[in-house]
Amino acid sequence: MTADSHNELEPTLFSAVITPHRSLPHFGFLVLMIAFGAISFITGVMFVLSGAWPVFGFFGLDVLLLYWAFRMNYRAAFAYEEVEVTCSRLIVRKVSHRGRAREWVLNPLWVRLIKVTHEDFGIERLLLISRGRQLAIGSFLGPDEKESFARELTTALGEARRGPTRTIIP
Questions:
Q1: How far apart are CA 86 and CA 105, in angstroms?
Q2: Rounded to a whole number, what is the distance in angstroms from the first to the last CA of the chain?
Q3: Which terminus has fewer CB within 10 Å in the chain: N or C?
Q4: Distance between CA 128 and CA 54 in Å, rounded?
Q5: Cβ-count burial of 113 within 10 angstroms (0-12 exposed, 13-18 middle, 19+ buried)?
């Protein structure tokens, strides 16, 4: 029996894909860059007309730096985390924005979910602890989303600890 056929026999109790949140869509980015570029150009022209022509280049540099910062931010949005719980395995797969994947396979019977909280801000970090090792998960989520995710994952881990159940047909 291969690992793939084992996975097909075992039901998935919980599955989630966590992606970074981006509040500015690409159209908003385009509008922002056009507006910022126009304001920088007009202000730069005013400096050129007043005799301070070297300042004009710095306004263009500001536009390029803003563009570069947003492009780096959008590139980082390609990262994601996958979490899957079955009765015998907890699989965490983290994929970086460059496509580099790391995968951890844990036994759900021995995994504890720890919530690191701050009294003013809520949950700051979620940690899976197994055999003395820690694995941070859900780093892309906000405090409320981490609370919901932790609740669902805790429920799935509880189901996994109960083991597979069978329905007896009379």
A1: 11
A2: 30
A3: C
A4: 55
A5: middle
CA pair distance 123, 116, nearest whole angstrom: 6
Cα gap 108→123, rounded to integer Å:
22
DSSP one-letter string for 101-143: EEEEEE-TTS-EEEEEEETTTEEEEEEEEETTEEEEE-TTS-H
Reported pTM = 0.72
Domain 3-20+79-162 CATH assignment equals 3.90.650.10:
no
State both tokens at 145: 């989303």
Residue 42 tokens read as 């007009």
Q: What one-character DSSP code corresponds to residue 97?
A: T
3-state secondary structure of 12: strand
Phi, psi of 140 (to 5 degrees): -80, -15
Q: What is the pLDDT of residues 19-63, one digit of tens each?
A: 888 788 889 999 999 999 999 999 999 999 998 888 888 888 999
